Amino acid sequence: MIPVIVRNMVTEARGIVRVVLGSVDGSALPAFEAGAHIDIKLPSGLTRQYSLCRLQEDAQYYEIAVLKDPQSRGGSVEVHSLNIGDSVSISEPKNHFPLVETNRHSILVAGGIGVTPMLPMAQHLQKMGLPFEFHYCAKSPETAAFASALASSSFADKMHFHYSQVAGSSRMDVVNVLSCHSNDSELYICGPADFISGVLQQAKMLGWPEERLHREFFAAPALDENVSENTAFKVKIHSSGELFDVQADESIFEVLDRNGVFLAVSCESGVCGTCQTGVIDGTPDHRDVFLTDKEHAQGKLVMPCCSRSKTPVLELDL
């Protein structure tokens, strides 16, 4: 973890604060690419993940923007209570939501606070002179972080604002937006789980191939009604042959942790990809939203923080 100092706190919209984090001694922080996020360890000991919301203009600073969510587990509330000068620790940037290296048209779609990883994406695409359009969906300008800055940015001509609670505006016409470029574009989407799931479902109905649909969830959607009830199974460690029982009310990660098998875990809900593990044998019962449908079908990877097993034994590449 890297120690940093809270250098500034700026209210960007109703319930949203932008936090400027700076290195302790003014030295450069690790470089990152658009779409990256960091883990931040808060004073209480909680660790949360937030997207870096602006490309670095000065290498000693990172910026995140956080919505104060009353339904959260406490992380966003604690971030909002930080003060300038407070010390926190962060990880090096991780990127599970990168831009694809292509000259194809890009469609950026942000729902609410999902705008945060999209900002550096738009900055990068504009800098590289690549074609894109940016759709920002929110209730109103008052709840849309960075709306004014985006409207006056160097790529303002590529911005499309969709406000569901503003007269003269409306929700994004998903079918129209996706139909225009279904054969020549990459889609990037971030926002509430139901919002992402709805747009991706529509994209697939319109014939978008899975490999051109890129998404990042901030929280896992509710489990599908068809998800089977939890049952007990065994998990096998490939390197040692050890076999552990996983009861119906516990996760693979919890069992591994209890038995001294280290596995890096962050979100504990199948969102971030930190605990991604290879599968040697057995069939995973996927409960994550990080892997693609194709990866789920292949069954070669699993997220032990939330997923289970459809077979009596699941052998992991550990």
UniProtKB/TrEMBL annotation:
The keyword Iron-sulfur applies. It comes from the Bacteria. InterPro entries: 2Fe-2S_ferredoxin-like_sf, 2Fe-2S_ferredoxin-type, 2Fe2S_fd_BS, Beta-grasp_dom_sf, FAD-bd_FR_type, FNR_nucleotide-bd, MRET, Riboflavin_synthase-like_b-brl. One of its GO terms (biological process) is methylation. The keyword Metal-binding applies. PROSITE patterns: 2FE2S_FER_1 (PS00197), 2FE2S_FER_2 (PS51085), FAD_FR (PS51384). It comes from Marinomonas alcarazii. Keywords: 2Fe-2S, Flavoprotein, Iron, Iron-sulfur, Metal-binding, Methyltransferase, Oxidoreductase, Transferase. GO terms for molecular function: 2 iron, 2 sulfur cluster binding; metal ion binding; methyltransferase activity; oxidoreductase activity. It holds the Pfam family Fer2. Residues 1-100 form the FAD-binding FR-type domain. This is Vanillate O-demethylase ferredoxin subunit. SUPFAM superfamilies: 2Fe-2S ferredoxin-like, Ferredoxin reductase-like, C-terminal NADP-linked domain, Riboflavin synthase domain-like. Residues 233-318 form the 2Fe-2S ferredoxin-type domain.
